[in-house]
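Entry 14. Ran structure prediction on the chain below.
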Amino acid sequence: MVLDSQFFIDIIPYYFLVIISAFSFQYLDNKKAFFLVSFTLMLFAGMRYDLAWDYWNYYNAIKYNTSLVEDFELFERFLIYICQKLEYPQLFFMVNAFFTVLFTNWGIKKMSINPKYSYLVYICIPVLYLSSLSTVRYALAMSMIFWGLSFLENKKPFKYIIILTLSFLVHQSSLIAILFIPLYYVKINRINNVILYIVFFFFSNIIIGLIPLLGNLSFMEKYTRYVNLGFGQAFNILPIIFNAINVINLVFYNIIVNNGVVDKNEKIRISRYITIFNVSCIIMQMFSYHAVLSTRLSRYFLMIIILLVPYYIKNNRLKFLIKTSIISFLLLFYFMQFTLSNYNGGSLQRKNVFIPYKIYLNKGH
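Output, structure tokens:
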């Protein structure tokens, strides 16, 4: 993609997302900062127009009541019926954006030791906030699970199960989040994490053989349908980066866990976050033969990076250097995705699915 003056104009709205997030927590008290940042993210996602891959799929499904509606889970289907009754398809994006950001906001507020960096991670990591502009229903389910982890943190598994059940009625992929329960009650140390990572790194061929068997289960029907569409190459730049982060976590495990932390429970929490991120990379690799399965199933666990990154910085002797490196990496990661052209089935569809940003103002469609 050729970078010209128009490109830098097109990405101006995305600059504001980062700036508002960073400066809100720097100059406002936490209550005002949480409100301003979450409101901005809700508005940005809810009022978008013709942005990201699935916008018109959802919009047309609502407007013309296509067969795609019957594939949606109960809560989303109910919301679509309301949008159809009001003859206002954009409401679908507004409601999903509101609750997606709301649940993420609650999760960060309850669990993060440094909301500024957590929000920066949420905005900058490509498969988190910006990805929610495409994977609307999935992103809502993922944010519900993220918030639900706060109940596991406080040893309230029953409440987590309720949230998990509700998220299943938003997107069925959330069923895999049942794995969080043993992850919160079984301690896995560094050595076992390394062993699991190495063993499962070479386990994907077995998973390929299991998919047809799982296809007999009704809740796996959508996943097998993804597979039957063709085997994509999932192991592109993003999994490489995430696996690199995972290796860093495992190599510097003791340093991260003990980084200015004296409370035993907090050390256990950090260790658990590293384990959960490790599980995300394991799942990513196990399903690496297919891009959709790999990203959809692993991202519930990958989201833990929102809580993990602030611990990299906490009270470290090299705090300034590490903080500068992490922020630079996140910003590079963030803006890199706007320079990449997007392809579908080998043919160029548009230069980039996120630019230019357009606002919905009763377009009359």
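The beta strands are 342-344, 347-350. Will compare against last week's run tomorrow.
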